[in-house]
Amino acid sequence: MPEFSDPTGRTPETHVIDFRAAEQLLAARDPRGAVKLLDGVIAAHPENTAARLLRARAFFAAAQLRPAELEFSIVLEREPDNAYAHFALARTYERQARPEQALRHFRLAAALDPNPQYVEAARFDA
């Protein structure tokens, strides 16, 4: 077994390959396949925020909103200035019919990044 492998025999290199493959699966509209690949990456590297953000996006795309909410929240605990994660969490809350929580995160996203999509969603003029 390689020196840096996890209990499944996967190496850091295979985790990178799995991460890249998960990106491709998500782009190809196979979010469940992406989640399956990312589960192993995150099990071996729970601190990997990029993998968690990608898995959150995949959960959202698969309409698995509670797991998406959890993953976006973990990303924001680690990176509170991640405007995209705030925006995506807001969209998750919006799909769960939780408008107050959604608006809070839309506004945080817009405050962190003046992306026109974020600013429009923040409804500062309302």
UniProtKB/TrEMBL annotation:
Enumerate the TPR repeat regions by residue range. Answer: 83-116
Q: What keywords is this UniProt entry annotated with?
A: Repeat, TPR repeat
Asked if the record carries the keyword Chaperone, the reply is: no
Q: Does the keyword Repeat apply?
A: yes
Mind telling me which SUPFAM superfamilies this protein's record contains? TPR-like
Q: What SMART domains does UniProt report for this protein, alphabetically?
A: TPR (SM00028)
Q: Which InterPro entries match?
A: TPR-like_helical_dom_sf, TPR_2, TPR_rpt
Pfam families found in the cross-reference section: TPR_19 (PF14559), TPR_2 (PF07719)
Name recorded for this polypeptide: Tetratricopeptide repeat protein
- Biological source species: Streptomyces nodosus
